[in-house]
């Protein structure tokens, strides 16, 4: 019965994503398009790899971790002022992310696919981590809290504990914590030490 908590987690993630999209459309939030596009691709590919290895309910939060960013990426085109200016660093991280996906495509092994997708997603996260720390006013924590909760629920849905079933959820828990800390961390540091 606990495996159905993934649907509660997915709902929480969707609520956080919708709030982020509203802020993006209004121009209050400025997503890094490279990050959000690659965040859409890597988890969807990872979901396909996990599915091919027999993972079912536990893959739903991973899929949502790609579907939500796809919606954010698309919403960033609605308001021309709602995207972050891309620099060389953003493109380099994007290139490394794409290389990881190509390497997965060459190997065609589910576990290798998930490993490269995690690597790809991690490279894609770097520009937003840096931006979130340096300019926390351009981000909101809502999608990352939703993503954190959603991926924690996937552990209740895992029937067979294999790396293909838990690797992406473990990674998503870690990266969402890092993103939340990047957004609120600088504010906390200023309050405590300044």
Compute the CA-based radius of gyration: 16 Å
Order of SSEs, N→C? HHHHHHH
Structural class: mainly alpha
Number of domains: 1
Tally of strands = 0
Strand content: under 5%
Largest sheet: none
Total number of helical segments?
7
Which overall shape is indicated by the principal axes computed on the Cα atoms?
globular
Spans of at least 5 consecutive residues whose pLDDT stays below 50 are: none
Distance between the termini: 48 Å
Overall helicity: over 70%
On the 0-100 scale, what is the average pLDDT? 89
Descriptive report:
The protein is mainly α and 194 residues long. It has one domain. The protein is 77% helix and 0% strand. Helix 2 runs antiparallel to helix 5. The protein is globular, with a radius of gyration of 16 Å.
Brief sketch in words of this structure:
The chain has helices at 5-26, 33-52, 60-75, 88-107, 110-134, 142-157, 163-193. By secondary structure, the chain is mostly helical.
């Amino acid at each position: 019965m606990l495996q159905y908590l993934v649907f509660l987690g997915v709902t929480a993630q969707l609520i956080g994503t919708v709030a982020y999209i509203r802020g993006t459309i209004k121009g209050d939030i400025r997503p890094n398009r490279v990050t959000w596009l690659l965040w859409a691709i890597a988890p969807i590919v990872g979901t396909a790899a996990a599915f091919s290895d027999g993972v079912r309910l536990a893959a739903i939060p991973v899929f949502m971790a790609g579907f939500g960013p796809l919606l954010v990426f698309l919403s960033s085109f609605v308001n021309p002022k709602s995207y972050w200016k891309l620099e060389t660093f953003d493109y380099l991280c994007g290139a490394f992310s794409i290389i990881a996906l190509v390497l997965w495509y060459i190997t065609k092994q589910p576990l290798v696919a998930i490993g490269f997708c995690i690597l790809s997603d991690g490279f894609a996260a770097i520009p937003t981590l840096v931006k979130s720390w340096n300019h926390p006013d351009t981000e909101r924590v809502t999608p990352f809290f939703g993503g954190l909760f959603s991926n924690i629920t996937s552990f209740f849905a895992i029937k067979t504990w294999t790396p293909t079933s838990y690797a992406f959820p473990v990674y998503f828990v870690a990266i969402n914590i890092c993103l939340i800390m990047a957004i609120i961390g600088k504010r906390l540091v200023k309050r405590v030490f300044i």
